[in-house]
Amino acid sequence: MTTQLPPGMHLETVDDKIMTLNVGPQHPGSGHMRLIIKVDGDYIVSCDPDPGYVHRGEEKMAEYRNYIQNIPHLERPVIHDSSNILYPYCLGVEELLGIEVPERAKYIRVIAAELNRCIYILYWLAIYGIFLGHSTMFMWPAGDRELFIDLLEAMSGARVTHAYLVPGGVRNDLPSNFEERCLRQVEYFEKRLKEYEAIFYQNPLLKARTEGSGILSRTDAIRLGTTGSVLRASGVDFDVRKKEPYDVYENLDFQTIVMKEGDSYARSRVPYLEMFESCRIIRDALKKMPKSGSVRTKLKPNPKGGNDEVYRRVESGRGAIGYYIVSNNRPEPYRVKISVGSFRNLICMPYLLKGEKLGNMPAVYWGLNYWPVEADR
Amino acid sequence: MSTIAPQFRLSRFIGSLFDLIFWVILIFSLVGLPIVFIVLFYIKLPVINNQLMTPYLAMTWMADPSRTLPIVKSFMHTTIFKVMAFPGFGFAALLAAATIFVERKFLAKMQLRVGPLYCGKIEGILQLMGDGFKLMSKEIIIPAKADKPIFWLGPLLFVGAAGAFVSLIPVAPGWVVANPNVGLLAVFAVIGFFPIIAVLTAWAANSKWTFIGGLRALHQMVAFEIPLILSLLGVVILSGSLNLSQIVESQEHFWWIAFLPIGAIVFFITILAELERVPFDLPEAESEIVAGWLTEFSGMMYGLIQLGTYLKLYAFAGLFVVLFLGGWNGPMVWPPFPQDIITQGITIGPVTAKFPGLPLFDQDMLNGTLWFVIKTVGVILLILLPRGVFPRVRIDMILHTGWYKLIGLAFINIFIALGLLYAGVLGPGGLLQ
Fold first, then answer.
1. Calpha distance B301→B176 (Å, rounded)
2. Handedness of CA A145, A146, A147, A150 (dihedral sign)
3. pLDDT tens-digit series, residues B157-215
4. How far off is chain B from A277, nearest CA to CA, in Å?
5. From the list B290, B390, B396, which residue is nearest A357 (CB)?
6. A56-376: which CATH number, 3.40.50.300, 1.10.287.990, 1.10.645.10, 3.40.350.10?
């Protein structure tokens, strides 16, 4: 009868009142990940996030390909935001190889990144809507994404996974009537965004459900190392675009959205308001962009980096994405380390969900702006 | 290796049809006819007009137009017709099917999409049929540790309870399946079955998600049943009857919604909760508990639950119409049946055909049905509307709404009704009656 457990292992004491729920990986309310949630009645006692179901070894793969071959697969972790996840890689490689980027390419990159940020946030918002049982809020953003997807398709030729940003600029120039078309789409998009306000953000039931739930205080947000919209919803004024401006962001007119509340409602609202700022940036960039010129500095075939290392980061739809690239006189990078916002925001989950009601779980979970595929890399 | 479907050939198709007809005739004559004769040998045939009523004679009568209509008419007043076709299951299922179609197109228009489009050529009108066939052909999977008899019984009980509810709704004067004098009490009794069925099936499925969903359904339905019953007491006080047909007749001049708007609003909100519709769909909240108490149902078991849900939707909308919107009452818009056809028949050239037994339905019944259907469809659309506008609420919010706010409002409604009664304005012997 006496069964010896291996050292370090212990049997879990069973409490009749506590029920363990496996939310995921096969659950309509989870991504490619699992939340092990213990509930006492309707209250969550503990939450243990279990990511790693879609680990694809992007970092290791990057060590076997040269700097150009790395572009298409590095955008795979988050295909809806592919320009932003490639952005720091391009910046880092340019610094390693010592490439100058043409002025026009810098503006085009910013436009592509902001369009992609809107596409990502709309997708995120659609899922936020359906997580809260609001089916109209699922359909509207999912449909309005098409506006910007069409624009990016015209720019790059692909609807998702554009691989548009390359070290040295962008892959190809804008189509001829792009400026006029982009301004028209952005104008219509802003009109649509205002309708979301009435049906979703001012909805009394949504406010009653999300306001005051899952509060992350300012100090906790900094201590846990969160980033992106989660950090800004907790009242910390941090945006990589403002604090460490890259490319031409310092010339452009926009502001950082900060909310003090730190609850689910604020976390759902900050990305929404950021889309207005993205529209402002796109307008401003289109105005200030040089009307003609080169968009790509050609690299040497199979370029080699020096014995050097570089760390660059940008602001993506989910927070700061940082690339740490080490080269050792070879065409392939020696090491590529990707630090993504999703994984850093996931850390808040056990803190935020403890003591919450089960009904708040989807709002808190998705409000963290967590993209499982990106977190696993 | 893949299998490629053979190309369609008309000659082979026609040949297969002839084969099929041959086999049908062969099997019918070898098996069917002997069975018919054996049955005829044993059953006692009735004698009508001094003639033995054999099946051949009955068919002859059916083919004779002068005898067809009386037979059809007498069939329409049998209980089995009422249960199966008109005020009962068939009518309700037809309205429910129309409801599902309208809901999908309506919601699609709200959400800037097109909804079902291809099935049935015209705006996807046959989509529901396709879904139904798909559900029927799907495998029914039962969890290994489920309590199988109760799990099987759940959908049947659900549809049965919904059917019982439908049978109590009067559609037109005299057209109701069951017309007990305590009709409203019977409605309350039937509504009381639904949470029990939900908890039974949820527990029998032996899954955590169904368990949580079942408990949520139980909490929600119990919390909203009391305001539901209280909100209807005002109508009972003013009409002085529990019989649903008499309640409709008492609204010949005024609809009760004009005097009891608070009761109507409370009843409408409780309808949403009892039907588990948005924003109160948390027993089936998919982002939290997969599909709630329906998680383990598959195939036609799920189909039956859906059928029951939509029958319930029709019955609740019908109850709202009966209690607050005057039921079948409305201006007479249906044209009377032309008397010429009854007295002189239809003359086409040299032939004059007479149809004794016309009209099949009297004018009151058709007019009443028309108004009832119009009002019911309106109420159903109003029930569907929140699905496009609201997110789901949380369990503590729903319980707070049910136990605090709605019960208070329902009591205010009762006091208004009592005030109107004792002031001598309404009610039996009142000024306005």
1. 29
2. positive
3. 999 999 899 989 898 888 888 888 888 899 999 998 888 898 888 888 888 888 888 88
4. 26
5. B396
6. 1.10.645.10
